[in-house]
Automatic annotation (TrEMBL):
Keywords: Membrane, Transmembrane, Transmembrane helix. This is Vacuolar membrane PQ loop repeat protein. It catalyses: L-histidine(out) + L-arginine(in) = L-histidine(in) + L-arginine(out). Residues 109-165 are annotated as: Disordered. It is a multi-pass membrane protein. It comes from Paraphaeosphaeria minitans. It is found in: Membrane. Belongs to the laat-1 family. One of its GO terms (molecular function) is basic amino acid transmembrane transporter activity. The chain crosses the membrane at residues 20-39, 51-72, 78-100, 180-200, 220-237, 257-276, 288-308. Pfam families: PQ-loop (PF04193). InterPro entries: LAAT-1, PQ-loop_rpt. One of its GO terms (cellular component) is lytic vacuole membrane.
Length: 322
């Protein structure tokens, strides 16, 4: 079925409208992509969960994308978005470096304090008057005290197990609601943005036999095209260090699952926008590198979702992947 939608003298087919909506949702996903991880790092005052190698490779991809866009003289919106992505990357990287340095200094101070205490402890122990007594009496007292302490801890653990399960269930439900609301909100913003752009005449459907915004123009410099492909390779390989880190530590603690959900949403809607525009062989083959890049990134995100499910993320694993 090919329904024609009319508005303010403009006509477009259902496929064109869906292509535009999916493209706009993809754009909204990229704009809000890094926000959940920034919030997660701030909430935990730590960036131990995220791999700096992941962010560094991603940043290189954004830089090469920006240089390629400027070199090829693409439309201003593409260059502006590339600049935004570079600044957003720098903010996240700076936050991670700050928390890593801060926590490393704190750990060094604690280690120094423990070292000083261990040096002073034997002297204090020799001055302790409680050391005077019958042989073996201190050992029995310490053993009895340790047993009593263990029993008390076990009673507290049993007493608090039920409330903990209840709180965990409530936290999981709350996380589900927040993440679903965030995804719905991003989709709504993207769809509304497309509708406004279409009504205002800012967005117009690309002719099916014409050039796609992703297609290099005939006079695009070879260097700009090379940078574009290099950027795609960086995006595709960026998640590998994060996957390796999660597997090595057997944990996803400190990662925001919404961050990767938005990434999957952005890549899926980006690919859908291309496919809804046209399925002609020439157009499909022209956009195949971008489709492969999106598909590969989606596969890597699914691997991370599986790691969330298998390893969990401590208190951060309230939202499970089903």
């Amino acid at each position: 079925m090919n329904v024609t939608i009319a508005g303010y003298g403009q006509h477009l087919t259902t496929h064109e409208a869906l292509s535009g909506v999916f493209g706009s949702i993809s754009l909204a996903s990229w704009i809000f992509l890094l926000v959940p991880q920034l919030i997660e790092n701030y909430r935990q005052s730590s960036a131990d969960g995220i791999s700096l190698a992941f962010l560094a490779v991603w940043f290189i991809g954004d830089v090469t994308n920006l240089i390629g866009a400027l070199w090829a003289q693409l439309v201003p919106t593409v260059s502006a978005l590339a600049v935004y992505f570079c600044f957003a990357d720098l903010i996240l990287i700076a936050q991670c470096v700050y928390y890593n340095d801060k926590n490393a200094r704190r750990a060094a101070r604690k280690a120094s304090t423990r070292s000083e205490d261990s040096v002073e402890q034997p002297l204090l122990g020799r001055r302790d008057s409680s050391n005077v007594g019958l042989p073996g009496s201190h050992t029995r007292r310490r053993s009895s005290a340790a047993s009593a302490s263990a029993s008390a801890r076990e009673r507290r653990r049993r007493a608090s197990s039920l409330p903990s399960l209840v709180e965990e269930g409530e936290a999981r439900g709350g996380a589900w609601a927040k993440n679903v609301a965030s995804i719905v909100g991003v989709c709504a913003v993207g769809a509304a943005g497309w509708a406004i752009a279409w009504k205002a005449g800012v967005w117009v459907p690309t002719p099916e036999h014409g050039a796609s915004p992703s297609d290099p123009e005939p006079d695009t410099p070879l260097g700009a095209s090379v940078l574009g492909y290099a950027s795609a390779v960086c995006y595709l390989g960026a998640r590998i260090p994060q996957i390796v880190k999660n597997q090595r530590e057997r944990s996803c603690e400190g990662l925001s699952l919404l961050f990767f959900i938005l990434s999957l949403l952005g890549n899926a809607t980006y690919g859908a926008g291309i496919l809804f525009h046209s399925l002609e062989k020439e157009y499909f083959l022209t956009n195949l590198p971008w489709l492969i890049g999106s598909l590969g990134t989606i596969v890597e995100d699914v691997v991370i979702f599986i790691q969330f499910r298998v390893f969990g993320a401590g208190e951060s694993s309230a939202l499970e992947v089903v």
